[in-house]
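Hi all, long-time lurker, first post. I run a small reading group and we've been trying to get comfortable going from sequence to structure in the token notation. Rather than ask abstract questions, I figured I'd post a concrete chain and ask someone more experienced to write out its structure so we can walk through it together at our next meeting. Sequence below, copied exactly:
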Amino acid sequence: MLKQKGFTLIELMIAVAIVGILASIAYPSYQNFVIKSARSEAMSAVLDAASKQEQYFADNRQYTATIADLGLSTASESGLYTLSATVNGQSFTITATPASGVVTKDTECTSFTVNEIGVKGSTGSASTDTCWKR
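-- Answer (accepted) --
Happy to help. Here is the structure in token form:
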């Protein structure tokens, strides 16, 4: 009797099922990790823009609503968030909102803000403290 080498169809189907189960568990965890790491990019971009806004105020005695005046792009480093500035007299708010990618599916921390006195804010289902501490 000849000994056959290789896999049977049942063995192959079991291996495919195992890989499928592992992927269905790993992919959502990976997406969650990517979202959380992208939040740190948004926080960094907002704080950097606020710092540059204060420097602009020191040089020009007024805030600017144009992000380009601060020497920054309206997109975050990887383009996942869009930066905007709102100026109201002697106050400002810098906002980072999701622009593309997996961060558009983030419902816990949908946007990040900081104002002229350093008060941090966020929108979404999670509290501001929770969003800024991640």
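A couple of things your group might point at:
Helices lie at 9-60, 128-133.
The CA atoms of residues 92 and 116 lie 6 Å apart.
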